[in-house]
Design goal:
Chloramphenicol Acetyltransferase; alpha+beta; 4-stranded antiparallel β-sheet; 8-stranded mixed β-sheet; OB fold (Dihydrolipoamide Acetyltransferase, E2P)
Amino acid sequence: MDFKLPMLGEGSDSGVVVTLHVKEGDSIAKDQPVLELENEKAVASIPSSVAGVVTGIYVKPGDKISVGTRILSVSAKEGEEAPSAETESPQPAPTPAPKKEASASTAIPPAAAPLPTGIAPAAAPSIRKLAGDLGLDLTRVRGSGRGGRIELGDLRNYVQQLQSLAFAQQAQTALSPKAAPESIDFSRWGPVLKKPITPLRATIARRMVENWNAIPHVTQFEEADITGLLAMRKKFVAAYEEKGARLTVTSMLLKSVVDTLRKHPSFNCSLDEAAGQFVFKEYYHLGIAVDTDHGLIVPVIRDADKKTVFQLAKELEELAAKARERKVAGEDLKGGTFTISNQGGIGGAHFTPIVNKPEVAILGLGKAALKPAVRDGNVEPRMLLPLAISYDHRVIDGGNAARFAVDLVAAIQGFEEKGLML
């Protein structure tokens, strides 16, 4: 019997084979992982729905496969019955019925045929004046009055017809396929190395274009003095390591971010354009952008407001490790309310992060640097952390963004040592 690729989850119907765990002649049990499949931002382990001895394998690493693709075939072990085809082969999803094209009866009615030159259409002076003010050609309007006389309703219908035509043209332009991209032969000018675009990189590219095009971005810049924060970290880092957690500046900043989001709920909301509503979330799920060899992955720490710094530090380290190993589950990438992108470990200062739709704001952290700063009237060397807050200007105004930045800096600089107690 054949084992075929089952449904992968909502919005997922294909992937690229990363690793095969079985070979011909192997005995496999039901629910035993047989391969790893790269799909968008995660690598998922695919379990077999059949048991028996592998008699054929029909895919290899690097193959792109979709739901229903035959992966392997098995035969029953000696003395056992063959697995039922009803349990091993998922039925293909029904093909959706094609959408009906607009019928001739629903098409926009044609305008009246133009009258011969010099013949004015029958209409009241008031109708003529209104048409003149609107710049309308009455010879194109179909009159419904006696003898083809143009009434006010006829003029209104003609205007609506012009609007419908204009909207239809706009929609057609928006839906019309873009010109096929041109492939350039760069090898004409020197040696090149070609690599295929991975599903993860394709997903990142698509999401970045969608986010950039859909959201009017503005970025607010600030600096926070983390000299005291670093001193507290140094004091507690050993105790955290003894308990199995790595205390980082990011894990400490998560608490400051949550405190600031509580004061500014518009930064923890989403815009529901279909319903014409703002959705204010009463939970705080923080997305953490993780830089991996395969691309940017954003796992989510749920209920960050209900966790201690120790819990946040431990979960942050675990999620980052899973993301780098591509073992993060698809559900771990959903439901975020606010994202943090920390480039401090790499270097660089301020940058302009792109909002992760449907969120409305994102915090970018740069590398802290020792700089001269005025403190109590004296110039002192202090560690200053660059902050960059990008936000959706449809939801958040500049004044609110400035107030959020000020409160975030105050929360960071006012971080209390008791928040690190174990």
